[in-house]
Amino acid sequence: MHTDVLEILFTEEAVTERIRELGAQITRDYEGKNPLIIGILKGATLFMADLVKRIEFPVEMDFMAVSSYGQSSESSGVVRIIKDLDQSIEGRDVIIVEDIIDTGLTLVYLKNLLEQRKAASVKLVTLLDKPDRHKVDITADYLGFTVPDHFIVGYGLDYAERYRNLPYIGVLKPEVYQS
Ligand SMILES: O=P(O)(O)OC[C@H]1O[C@H](OP(=O)(O)OP(=O)(O)O)[C@H](O)[C@@H]1O
Ligand code: HPA
Ligand SMILES: [Mg+2]
């Protein structure tokens, strides 16, 4: 375990197994459809890569980049689009892939935006949910794990752009972001 990590919440093996189950659920639910899987950069990249490998039909992938945290451990509440989709989603079934729902502000914004763009359906899949911190009413359609109200790193989640490559999900030691 890295010295900046207080505790491991989910090991690499536990994450792999949960993603396998989520992929199987999505495979069943989207049988005969052609969903567009939209990964939200950068946090969702590791989860997205593993999830699509567990979906048993060919999928199309696209990415958006938005930011509300920047270098901070607190959401600014303002969602900025840094990279938009490459294509129209009108009439498409879309699945948004996120690493975490914290305040929920990012996903509410994105869901509304994609619905305004006339997607046929918009579903949310998130690796983690931190319900104690929600500021808006939001529920994922597919959820990996619920996490407590601590700052989480690993498996795509960063603090100031670091720790994304940890192969497990852990709690960052508070002294790392308080110093
Ligand atoms: O529910 P919320 O409070 O909106 O927080 C969740 C969002 O914040 C993080 O992204 P961030 O803006 O840090 O960008 P990153 O994915 O590049 O780390 C995370 O990846 C989610 O997108
Ligand atoms: O707990 C978190 N860790 C990393 N990034 C985040 N973005 C929102 N919440 C978190
Ligand atoms: Mg981040």
TrEMBL record:
Compartments it resides in: Cytoplasm
UniProt KW Metal-binding keyword: yes
Catalytic activity line of the entry: GMP + diphosphate = guanine + 5-phospho-alpha-D-ribose 1-diphosphate; IMP + diphosphate = hypoxanthine + 5-phospho-alpha-D-ribose 1-diphosphate
The protein's Enzyme Commission number: 2.4.2.8
Residues annotated as domain Phosphoribosyltransferase: 12-159
Top-level taxonomic group: Bacteria
Single GO MF annotation: glycosyltransferase activity
Cross-referenced InterPro entries: HGPRT, Hxn_phspho_trans, PRTase-like, PRTase_dom
Cofactor annotation: Mg(2+)
This protein's record includes keyword Iron: no
Keywords for the protein's UniProt record, in alphabetical order: Cytoplasm, Glycosyltransferase, Magnesium, Metal-binding, Nucleotide-binding, Purine salvage, Transferase
Chief location: cytoplasm
Pathway stated in the Swiss-Prot or TrEMBL entry: Purine metabolism; GMP biosynthesis via salvage pathway; GMP from guanine: step 1/1; Purine metabolism; IMP biosynthesis via salvage pathway; IMP from hypoxanthine: step 1/1
Annotated function: Purine salvage pathway enzyme that catalyzes the transfer of the ribosyl-5-phosphate group from 5-phospho-alpha-D-ribose 1-diphosphate (PRPP) to the N9 position of the 6-oxopurines hypoxanthine and guanine to form the corresponding ribonucleotides IMP (inosine 5'-monophosphate) and GMP (guanosine 5'-monophosphate), with the release of PPi.
Family: Belongs to the purine/pyrimidine phosphoribosyltransferase family.
Protein name: Hypoxanthine phosphoribosyltransferase
